[in-house]
Amino acid sequence: MSAISKRPNSVALLAIIAVAAPASLSAQQEPYPVPANNQGEVLTTVYGSPPSDLSGMAEGPEIEGIIAARNGDTLQIATADGARTPIRISAGTDIKASGGFLGLDKDQLGADSLLNGLPVKVRTVQWADNLVASRIRLKNNDLKTAAMIRNGTEQKFGEQGAAIQQNAAATEALRGRVGDIDKYNIKGTTNVYFDTNKYNLSAEARSELCNAAAQADAMDNALLLVVGYTDSTGSYEINQALSEKRAARVTNYLQQQCGWKPWRMLTPTGMAESDPVADNSTAYGKAQNRRVAVNILVSKSVDGL
Q: Where does the chain hold its CATH 3.30.1330.60 domain(s)?
């Protein structure tokens, strides 16, 4: 059994390309110009890093948006109205991700988790003419998706056999367009389902996969991200291996039978029993969780957003 779900253009899957984050500056280094408003103008020069003790500082605005850029310990947050606000982070910034039952469980994170494209909610304090994040909140699912897409794009569309060699020119062109993109829109998701402990594709699933490939092929520069899942039956080790086999089977079918080019595919990923879409305590719920999700992604830069 399979199903296709689509989201409107306004709902973006914000994903990321890995970015090298330079180390924070010290007082002995060259001054680091920091924009002090959302117009990108440099109004002041700050030496070193923000203080780790943020207590007692005047409160700044609370900002919700996505991380549009990062340079060392400075983030640029893009909000829904198009404004971009530079925010510094310090050793005292409290960074947590939520995603447990009712969103109550939170995991403490390091600053290296603040990747381009992540949706965040930020509380700030005033430091000189700058804003410093006192608290940053994000969602585990956004972070997982970002990591999966980053892992795929980090391969730089490496050659994968004769099929890639025959398309070398197309691969190079795609590298030029996609290599520095850190945000995507999700244009549609196709879910295909599996029997317990199986990773073979049903006839219906095969038809749905080729339909998804055709849908993606009609979009300029679309990529596919394939993610495999299991229900809660079995150990983590067994489920992880099974989810990877399911993702690999779907990927192979898309490439071999549906004509999807390998250089337009992000690295397939197995996520075991994580991110269930239904209750694993029921047979129906388990059947919904034994799935592979095929996500159609289009970069925001070519999607006109």
A: 2-13+154-303
In sequence order, which residues have a C-beta less than 8 Å from that of residue 141 and are 6 or more positions away? 99, 275
Q: Under CATH, which number does the domain 32-139 receive?
A: 2.40.50.320
Nearest to 126 by CA among 36, 66, 27, 24: 36
pTM assigned to the model:
0.46
Region(s) of the chain under CATH 2.40.50.320: 32-139
d(CA 272, CA 243): 5
DSSP character string of 71-90: ETTEEEEEPTTS-EEEEE--
* Contact criterion met (CB below 8 Å) for 49 and 24: yes
Q: Which of 27-31, 103-107, 158-162 has the lowest mean pLDDT?
A: 27-31
* Structure token digits, residue 254: 């898309």
Q: Write out pLDDT tens, residues 112-157.
A: 888 777 788 999 999 988 899 999 998 877 776 655 555 544 443 3
Tally Cβ neighbours within 10 Å of residue 153. 23
Least confident segment among 36-40, 52-56, 119-123, 199-203: 36-40
For the stretch 169-184, pLDDT in tens is 444 444 443 343 346 7
| Class of the CATH-defined domain 2-13+154-303 | alpha beta
Q: How far apart are CA 305 and CA 303, in angstroms?
A: 6
- In the numeric block, which tokens belong to residue 183? 């945000």
Largest interatomic CA distance in the chain? 66
Residue 218 neighbours by CB distance under 10 Å:
8
**3-class SS at 34?**
strand
Helices (H), 46-129: none
Residue 261 has which token pair?
């080019």
Torsion sign, CA atoms 233, 235, 239, 242 = negative
Residue 52 and residue 127 in contact, taking contact as beta carbons nearer than 8 Å: no
